[in-house]
Amino acid sequence: xxxxxxxxxxxxxxxxxxxxxxxxxxxxxxxxxxxxxxxxxxxxxxxxxxxxxxxxxxxxxxxxxxxxxxxxxxxxxxxxxxxxxxxxxxxxxxxxxxxxxxxxxxxxxxxxxxxxxxxxxxxxxxxxxxxxxxxxxxxxxxxxxxxxxxxxxxxxxxxxxxxxxxxxxxxxxxxxxxxxxxxxxxxxxxxxxxxxxxxxxxxxxxxxxxxxxxxxxxxxxxxxxxxxxxxxxxxxxxxxxxxxxxxxxxxxxxxxxxxxxxxxxxxxxxxxxxxxxxxxxxxxxxxxxxxxxxxxxxxxxxxxxxxxxxxxxxxxxxxxxxxxxxxxxxxxxxxxxxxxxxxxxxxxxxxxxxxxxxxxxxxxxxxxxxxxxxxxxxxxxxxxxxxxxxxxxxxxxxxxxxxxxxxxxxxxxxxxxxxxxxxxxxxxxxxxxxxxxxxxxxxxxxxxxxxxxxxxxxxxxxxxxxxxxxxxxxxxxxxxxxxxxxxxxxxxxxxxxxxxxxxxxxxxxxxxxxxxxxxx
Length: 520
What we know:
Structural class: mainly alpha
Distance between the termini: 30 Å
Number of domains: 1
Helix content: over 70%
């Protein structure tokens, strides 16, 4: 095998490289906002499905995808044992396969089911196509999310990569809504009728180009002869052993205190964002009585999230994630209260006020999306001092699993609640009682979720300073340093981040080594 091919050739990490890496999140950020903000509106307001069925499509599909993602992280971690993995890269091989599948299924989703199968097949068609699209997205994002860990161990360089990624994610969010807002605002009735289809075509082209660029401009940890020999020496597992090890690996991630807090913050904040994005079109069109293009015009102000992301990249280094979490979550809570007051005070011609409130929300949302995935590349280092293993893919898969599961439940639950509150998607008007209940749901549900994330974030200790201390201690131990010689500062940091006594850290052998010796 030739280890000099581009996928194993490290290159200089600068802003240009960081942008190239981050381009995949043009799809990542755009896709998540399409799922949480556009698909529900498309299925209810355009296709005509009732809210519960529309929510079920995204809910069921994302649960299937969450299970797939949970297994897929381990598959990518161990794929370097195969010929394809060694030749094309354990991460990059799957990114390319996912790219091809995504290009086909994502475009197909925006083709009306009635144009292919006739009336009566909407639910099954959109469920199948959407599920396939989710699987391909996971096939791209799970290996891609581990690449900063593959490409460098340096905090600043990882921040360049992750920071660029979140900037691109904010751009993707803006482009998604900007494209749809323009198409929905065109004077032609035919253009408005096909706005979602035209938007889907443009989104597909944009995302495919972005993912391929990222695919070609990144690399993986080189497979040295020593590394290959070590991998080849490991025993091949039966299906039962594989499942056992996979479940063990995923269960072990929750022994990591920093990860437990990180996951809680991530899940509650992003699920709160999902509720907002899912319900905003209904709130604006049904409760506020505004035109159908206004939700997408407001969402196009997601461009302000790019500005806050630029600031967040600097604040991440100077102030750490806890500070970013606070200003983000407090800003979102203030914005949601503003939406509620605008509705319940019956403000006349509220568009200007809604724009101001939306800008506050989007500035805060940009930081909300930026921070967790900037913290993530350092989570496997906390695990490393606990287990001496490299499980970046496992952690990415667990995060993706819970993110997709809760995101699925949020959209599904939003659809069920809308129907229970009396909302009828095909009705031209709703009663005042229904609009009041929908407005309360839109405001209160996200606030509760964001508030939980805020409270947990105040206990989060992983930052640039503590990570540096942790890295130095790992380096000392890897170079043969004795555990008894640990400094008080390193011991305190290691125990705070892992949640375990120092003497339980850095075991004499990894889990796999212990299993190998046990099976002999």
